[in-house]
Design brief:
With 137 residues, the chain is an alpha/beta fold. The strands form two sheets. Strands 1-2-3-5-7-8 form a six-stranded mixed sheet, with helices on both faces. A two-stranded parallel ribbon has the order 4-6. It has five helices and eight strands, in the order E-E-E-E-H-E-E-H-H-E-H-E-H. The protein has a single domain (12-136), classed as STAS domain (Transcription Regulator spoIIAA).
Length: 137
């Protein structure tokens, strides 16, 4: 699958050992490094970067998984232990993957928190969701 999308103005790109963050005016995009395990330390690192630019306001989070070979894992107990934390900082989470196999970790989020989660195989669907949301604001 190819990712075709129109980029809005990026506020900042941040390279971290866990991957790259792209901060846009209305949302944050994450592209994890192959093999990243998301634990409490990684979660707090991501939220720390988020707070620097978006303060305490919850924002949409987009996670890119560009091919089915891209793997990352998450400790599902994070969703239980830090439920309020996720809900305070993530307005919603969208995973963009090359196929449905990229949505497994999203299911934990949807089952264990009140954060809406979306799975897309096309980045344009994320942009449509963002556009729709911004019209409502």
């Amino acid at each position: 699958m190819r990712f075709f999308y129109v980029k809005t103005n990026t506020l900042k790109k941040i390279k971290l050992p866990i991957g790259e963050l792209k901060l846009f005016p209305d949302y944050m995009e994450i592209n994890f490094t192959e093999g990243t395990h998301i634990d409490e330390e990684v979660l707090f690192q991501l939220v720390s970067e988020k707070i620097k630019y978006y303060k305490e306001n919850p924002i949409p989070v987009v996670i890119l998984r560009k091919s089915s070979a891209d793997k990352y894992s998450i400790n599902p107990t994070l969703f239980v232990e830090h439920k309020e934390f996720f809900e305070a900082h993530a307005k919603w989470v969208a995973v963009v993957a090359s196929d449905d196999s990229g949505f497994e970790n999203l299911e934990y989020l949807k089952q264990l928190t009140n954060v809406p989660g979306y799975g897309f195989t096309n980045y344009h669907k994320v942009l449509e969701l963002l556009k729709k949301e911004n019209k409502l604001l």
